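Anyone have tokens for AraC-like DNA-binding protein? Sequence:
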Amino acid sequence: MDPLSDIIALLRPGAAVSKPISGKGMWGVRYAAHDAPGFTIILAGEAWVTFEGEEPLRLTQGDFLLLPITPAFSLSSAPGLRCVPVEPQDEAVRHGEQVGELDFLALGGSFAFERVNAPLLLSLLPGRIHIPATAGKATRFGRLIDLLAEECIDEQPGRDMFLQRMLEALLIEALRWQGVGEDEAVAGLLSGMRDPAIARALQAIHGEVSAGWTVAGLASISGMSRSAFSDRFGGLMGCAPIEYLTRWRMALAKEALSRGAKSLDRIAEEIGYESASAFSTAFRKRLGCPPGRFARQVAG
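Reply: yep, here.
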């Protein structure tokens, strides 16, 4: 698989919660930071989201906002309003006036990710993905939004299952949307994949993770000098090439240990260590405990 498919496969995303969020009149709410990835799709009207230390961001009908790691934020009908603290809920919420025709409607909620590797994998993604309706409307992404909006309005049999699958598809489409990862100031996997030379190195690592990769070898694949490649890779990915390789190997090891179906010898061979002993030493150094204890902790 390609690097992004590998990341998504280990995350095993699913829509944990999805609910209508509506409002009327003047209103404002504030949420504390939480570790669940959050999303919002604006179905009608507009609202303003504000993150600490930033200017308010206007969200209008058809906009999509994904927060792989959700920071504290406020949501309001207009910028500058007083926002009251609220807790995330698993059911429909209505803000502002409680009677009368709505002037704002969104589908919001959170995704569930595989916990074993979520911190590492999410760190490779942008902190925020905002796809305005004007950018996504004429694309497949826009068509997914339209289908979700229709399903939210209609009470058809199988609605919950349909929304679950569509939200998963929307997550994948958002992560590979052409505008994501173009900002080189934000280091991570998507930024690296936008660079043809670094993408070749990433594909090599993910295609044969057990190979004895060196910086020189990866630089040759990228068609760059060793020093230029190291600088470019570090700037785009936020870590050195061999550090990325080690992190990915450990992610695969943690996934295999959590499933409990492979021996240490088999895991070591598959991710590029000469022996179970060498793998155990590297794992303990990186994670602070031996593989066997990690497997028992995850299982228990």
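The chain has two domains: 3-175, 189-299.
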